[in-house]
From TrEMBL:
The organism of origin for this protein: Okibacterium fritillariae
Chain ranges of the ABC transmembrane type-1 domain: 90-300
Subcellular location: Cell membrane
Record-linked InterPro entries: MetI-like, MetI-like_sf
Protein name: Carbohydrate ABC transporter membrane protein 1, CUT1 family
One annotated GO biological process: transmembrane transport
Family annotation (SUPFAM superfamilies): MetI-like
The organism's place on the tree of life at top rank: Bacteria
Transport listed as a keyword: yes
Amino acid sequence: MSTLKGDPALTARALAPISSRRRNRLTGSGTTPWLFLIIPLAFLIVLTYIPVGNMFWYSLTSWDGLDPDMEFVGLGNFVRIFTQPEIFQVFFVSLYYLAGAIAQLVLALYFATLLSFKTRFRNLFKGVIFFPYLINGVAIGLVFLYFFRPGGTLDALLAAVGIHDPGQWLGDPSLVNISLAGTSVWRYMGLNFVLFLGAIQSVPAEQYEAADLDGANSWHKFRFIILPSIRRILGLSFILAIAGALSAFEMPYIMTGGANGSETFVIQTVNTAFKFSKVGLASAMAVVLLIIVLVITAVQRRVFPDERGEES
């Protein structure tokens, strides 16, 4: 024993088999990691892949959601979607949400850049920007119902600056989608703000110091340091913004129920399934939306390759 204590090399060789055996007991035969994945994989299969598979099957039928017999119609539901304008034209409503999403990204990037550096009360402003994302969507919808109602908070603010009778924000078809998209901007900007903030703060400070030595101004730092460093996060946020615009549901459903020209594709899908009992057609509409999102995601992976020049 004294020999082992006096010679570190002998001690290491003596303990090596013990460490190896202990490692083998912990890792088993490579199956231990899979044991921890059984429950998550089971939930993923049962709650995601099986429902999606059923959705594809329902889209090929004329099922009403109640009848145990499902009549197979093949691609008839898909033909109906693309040949009846009233079904597919609601995608134009998504353009309002897409414009709002782009404005949201610009604002989030601006505030994230500004608050990444020394600014007075920056922690307070960070909390103010991110706080709306933590609020329940139903609560936000109810709050903005009072905000946009005739004679409500927004009308009172506009009257204070001399603008009277601006119109019905949720009752006028020319204003309702702008109002709803603006609400979505306020609610979801905090998520993109946090993503951009984390990406910007991960940039090494030495790069900014080198830029200062070279005489770079704030715009040069943003263009040549910040933007290249957060390119992947920008790509992710952009694809999330497009997917969110196409699948807008919560705010218009809570605030207007799709009335006055505010019906989105998802609201129409829900109504088709549960209001008109056309689950087969609604499933086909959901499949179309899924395919569109997957195509946009594939394009994004081409446009925003990773740092090694490969597709993300």
